[in-house]
Amino acid sequence: MDQKQNRYIVNKLLGETPLEALERMRIIEGLDSSIPMTYAGRLDPMAEGVLLILMGEECKNKDSYLGLDKEYEVEVLFGFETDTGDTLGKIKNQELKNKNEIEIEEINSELQKFKGKFLQEYPAYSSKTVDGVQLHTLANKGELPEEMPTKEVEIYDIKILEEREINSEILLREIKNNISKVKGDFRQSEIIDLWEKNLIEKNIFKIIKIKVSCSSGTYMRSLAHNLGVKLGVSALAYSIKRMRVGGYSL
After folding, report:
1. Coil, strand, or helix at residue 217?
2. How far apart are CA 54 and CA 5, in angstroms?
3. Of the candidates 122, 125, 121, 145, which has an alpha carbon nearest to the alpha carbon of residue 187?
4. Under 8 Å between Cβ of 75 and 207
5. I need a surface site. Which of 32, 120, 127, 244 has the fewest CB within 10 A?
6. Residue 40, C-beta contacts closer than 8 angstroms, at least 6 positions apart
7. What is the pLDDT of residue 195?
8. 109 CB neighbour count, 10 Å cutoff
9. How far from 131 is each of 138, 152, 218, CA to CA, in Å?
10. Do the beta carbons of residue 130 and residue 145 sit within 8 Å?
11. What does residue 221 show for φ and ψ, rounded to 5 degrees?
């Protein structure tokens, strides 16, 4: 904690919501519930890493933190697409080219095309509002707008850190373990059931790990999905770790 600025740099854990991370830190630090606290820049339950938490008078300066650049390390899993863009989502069937046909050189070539400014569509399961209603609420009701809202974002740098393969048995075990860490109603039972049905057959899947430096508001789930679209194969964000927010890191 920066005592002078009333600012915490917290490692949000996998499965936590930002609010749960805030409350965990409040308990650890022994802070009274009457002390105002907020977080600047949310992270999805399946994402982890740097979360800025403000306390007291610093809460009034929240807006000054929201536009800070970000840096992420993201694992992209090829072979599946979900309605959330990560593993905490319902699998969507597609007829696309086989995931094993893509080579690392082709992946890197398409990745580099994302550098610069572009319009990125908000994920269906996000907190962006349309006519005062958050998209994830509309998605659950099957009432998403025909034209999804977009935002101009910028990727400053993007590169592949590593490539690996994972078999269906280990993949299912890891997904179930990660989903089990999420509390509340996120359709967990239905989602796990779909993963179990789609991972019955033995298979090998490709995962790449990438490092992304970008502007605020850039969705890694959308980036993973769009990379798959460019390659003609289903893809999702298997893991997301925020390494830096502005000049703040763990």
Report:
1. coil
2. 8
3. 125
4. yes
5. 32
6. 52, 53, 54, 62, 65, 66, 245
7. 96
8. 12
9. 11, 20, 22
10. yes
11. -65, -40
Residues belonging to the chain: 250
DSSP 6: T
Burial 64-93 (b: 16+ CB within 10 A, else e): ebeebebbbbbbbbbbbbbbbbbbbbebee
The DSSP bridge pattern shows strands 7-12 and 37-40 to be unpaired
Residue 245 pLDDT level (bands cut at 50, 70, 90): very high
Residue recorded with tokens 């610069």: 116
Task: Give all strands (DSSP E) within 2-147, no chain letters.
Answer: 7-12, 37-40, 47-55, 70-78, 116-121, 129-130, 133-134
Share of the chain above pLDDT 70, in %: 95
Architecture of the domain made up of 70-249 = 2-Layer Sandwich (3.30)
186, HSE (Cβ side, Cα atoms, 13 Å): 23
Binned at pLDDT 50, 70 and 90, residue 95 comes out as very low
Our CA dihedral for 44, 46, 50, 55, rounded to 10 degrees, sits at 50
Alpha-carbon dihedral 169, 171, 177, 178, rounded to 10 degrees: -170
Beta carbons of 86 and 234 less than 8 angstroms apart: no
Please state, in angstroms and rounded to a whole number, the distance separating the CA atoms of residues 220 and 43: 11
